[in-house]
Amino acid sequence: MVRRKEVKPNFKYAVIHRHRECYPLKQMCQFFEVSRSGYYKYVKRLVYPQKDFELAEKIRAKQKVCQKTYGYRRMKLWLDSEGIVKNPKTILRIMHKYDLLSEIRRRKKWRRMGEDKHKYDNWLNREFNAEHPNQKWVTDISYIPTREGVLYLSMIRDLYDRSIVAYKTSDSQTVSLVLDTINLAMKSVKTESRRELHLHSDQGFQYTSQAYFDLTKEYGILPSMSRRGNCYDNALAENFFGILKTECIYRHKPESFEEANRMIDDYIYFYNHERIQTKTGLAPLALRQSC
Fold first, then answer.
1. Are 167 and 91 in contact (CB under 8 A)?
2. How confident is the model over 14-29, as pLDDT tens digits?
3. Distances in Å between the alpha carbon of 112 and those of 73, 173, 194, 204, 206?
4. pTM (2 decimals)?
5. Of 80, 142, 208, 216, which sits with the fewest C-beta atoms within 10 Å of its C-beta?
6. Which parts of the chain fold into alpha helices (H)?
7. What residues does 86 pair with on adjacent strands?
């Protein structure tokens, strides 16, 4: 049984308003434990539409498209692109008022496994900006929980425009998963550009393996590696996984590997082609095409 206090005030006001001709207003307000002044404000809102309603509906429609992942800063950029110029504080207030805020991002802990065979200098050294595409890449592996078990996602991200260059999934965390991701990524890189390419990773066993060493040497890639126990060195790789899980995986909770793969495909397409970055005001691949 639902208690009166657990029912939202607007619902109570709606019931009171519906029966206003049948029962005294004072008694109904006492019964529902609401104030008469609150009821009168509710009636006023019925007569005069709220001034923020039209803008809130535009924001609601955009949040539906992006699956409620835009914060107020990114929403402002989108509104600006639509010719609707509003103060960021106004947008934040409306998103609060109409329950249109994005979800809060979660953090996770990492653990290291396997033994080292090859180590590399930290050429990236937290210089996260690149002058042109295919100059600096970061790579990492993360896990996607499903009812069938854990699905592992390997990806490579370009620091020039923050786009996802390539990604692969597997039900096991292997060296082959990393090698397949690199092979896929290199299909988009011209031969003459490969000698300038840095690929940064953490010290996971896949990246210290002999096979990884051989493949990067074959392509002419210069490997770069984070210092042990320092999560900031590979922050841009981990940052993407945080975005993916918060905006997609944790919210929809895939039941199977097939569903998880479909969700990852859809989200990465959205991320590369549509999701506005607050730093540039453009989606990653839109930035690349504009240059």
1. no
2. 889 888 888 899 999 9
3. 35, 12, 29, 6, 11
4. 0.64
5. 80
6. 9-18, 25-32, 36-47, 53-65, 72-81, 88-97, 175-186, 210-219, 235-244, 250-252, 257-273, 284-290
7. none
